[in-house]
């Protein structure tokens, strides 16, 4: 049985990011990236968006960038702001994959499907299945597993960020490509949760137009298309356009605790390891923080523990919001409209990245519907007590 120092399971954003970092900082240790050859188990092509300063480590893969962001409230009021010194960036997954794979020098890629991971005090054993059905095993000193969770813990609130987007080309100029629209809250709202349009204009005639919900259940394809037709025709007034591509996805937004370390030698990364911001669904920036901290720990000769992407207090804030949305205590559209109306965008972006200071968080909290959020806070505290009580029985 082959043995390696580190095995990374899955070649999505998290697996590739960690492979990229370890390739550079662990020259004398064996690292493998285990990627399934089965197309049905691989993620479809997608886009990732995030914000950072003008110059970043993944700029070679960035396909579009915006220096200003906008939000439209339920009544049509628009809040628009430059976000200097930050820039909103988009990366296509295929470009990111090509960039990382082209730069790897020491990390090997194994094309096998991981069917099981057997943890042990000294090493973990990966059970693998080949494309031809062949079986083999691989032992690793550390395993970083980025595969999606089969199920989420039951103790928290879990909403789904589910969306469908059309890449469109209009017959004449329709878009202002200088700003991305993070949330257009004019769309019809669900009874609980929130729905919004998301608009990334690439130039005057092309854009990605998405319909997104934060709710418990996903929509049918027909419902997504109906919502997109309503949005593009009645709110954006795009006129004649061609759909050149479709993007669709589901991102879990949960207040449940997702432990990074799940065994003696097994760790989770990516969404499974808590890299997704519970209140927004943004993941790419969280993955970068996770993988940087893991690489730093391994270089220092430490076990990679405590690499959470977000501070504990921010995860609590998000849990309160999810509770309020899920139980209908908080009007989602009004909450987000008030949030953006009352706070400068750079401050909000720092908060969403987990880098804000307590005084900024206090200002953000006072800029939300305080009565509704106080009710959600009390309900979240009570729910936490019930969970704690049940664990002690």
Offer a few descriptive terms.
393 residues; alpha/beta; FAD/NAD(P)-binding domain; D-Amino Acid Oxidase, Chain A, domain 2; 3 domains; 7-stranded mixed beta sheet; 9 helices; disordered C terminus; FAD/NAD-bd_sf; Lycopene cyclase
Structure description:
Strands 1, 2, 8, 9, 10, 11 and 17 form a seven-stranded mixed beta sheet that branches. This protein has a seven-stranded mixed beta sheet with strand order 6-5-13-14-15-12-16, with helices on both faces. A three-stranded antiparallel beta sheet has the order 3-7-4. Helix 5 packs across helix 9. It folds into three domains: 2-66 and 88-153 and 255-299, 3-Layer(bba) Sandwich (FAD/NAD(P)-binding domain), CATH 3.50.50.60; 158-253, D-Amino Acid Oxidase, Chain A, domain 2 (2-Layer Sandwich); 312-392, no CATH class. It is built from nine helices and 17 strands. The chain is an alpha/beta fold and 393 residues long. InterPro entries: FAD/NAD-bd_sf. It comes from Thermobifida fusca TM51. It holds the Pfam family Lycopene_cycl.
